[in-house]
Amino acid sequence: MRNRKSIFLVVLLCIGLLAWYSLGQAQDVKNKRIGTAAATELLIPVGARDLATGGASVATSTGVDALFWNPAGLGRMEFAAEGVLTTLSYIGDIRVNYGAVGVNFSGFGAVALSIKALDFGQIPLTTVDDPENRSGRTFSPAFITVGISYSKAFTDRISAGGTLKIISEKMVRVAGSGVAADIGVQYHGAAGIKGLNLGFAIKNIGPQVTFDGTGLLRKAISSEGRRPEQYYKSLAASFELPSSVELGISYERQVTEFLTVSAHGAFANNNLGLDDYRVGFEAVYTMGKMKFAARAGTLTSPMGADDEQIFGPTFGFGMVIPTQAMTITVDYAYRSVEYFNNNSMFTLKFGF
Fold first, then answer.
1. What is the value of pTM for the model shown?
2. 53 neighbors 59 (Cβ within 8 angstroms)
3. What is the dihedral sign for C-alpha 282, 286, 289, 294?
4. Domain coordinates in residue numbering, the chain
């Protein structure tokens, strides 16, 4: 018991220090570097259940659903193995497809592999010689992120985990690559209160991303002498990853034998974006072996005169269908968006 209390106090101290540091950084930056991040596809959410609660589930997300929100939740996987497929209609006619599989090894922990790919469709290819695309040529950027995760539940209350992500971006003859890491901790039953959960995650930590390729070559003609036409390369600038420090808290209560409700809150300090506060709610009704869930959430940011937050409230639902061979979970999330079409996300999860 003393050991658990000591761990809890250490976790609280770390969270407090990092929160103080992140708030200080937010005041220093004053949103001056918004829009300067590389690999912003890392910020696109996956997992309809968590998106429907406004992304406030840093403290409670579990299984392969947790890989994006807090990798510590992977260690609390309910099944021996899980697989998930997610598709999201994002802004600007972009579709995001995501898949992950995880296996829980007894005594060792859980390991997962995830892949996120963006589908931009066919974009008209314009050049200096063909600015109106009379040739009819098209191209499609390839943005892919592959993640390898590990997490372990050290006790029935504390779990920790991390993810190493390999980033690849390719547009015609220019490409960039990088690596990023996430780490997280979850504490369930905080302060001995059943249903009170805490979560902490540091996301997208890694070196800067630089682009290179033959697409950066340009023709040059000497202004003096008789030198032939030559090529020179434009040097692309390097940019930081969109890192964040996120703190979450939630409380779950069983209202009746069949109904469970929970409230979630989270704060995210983003190094190259607006900080945000998230709030979400979920109600789960059990009917026999099946479960039905309704969810809602919202996100808000402290903004300056020139800042905007285009994402609005979220809503969603889900159901869990047990079968003899597996347990199937279907989730849907809807997010309102300003200036663009609203987002819709479907997630299908299998538990074995």
1. 0.84
2. no
3. negative
4. 2-211+242-351
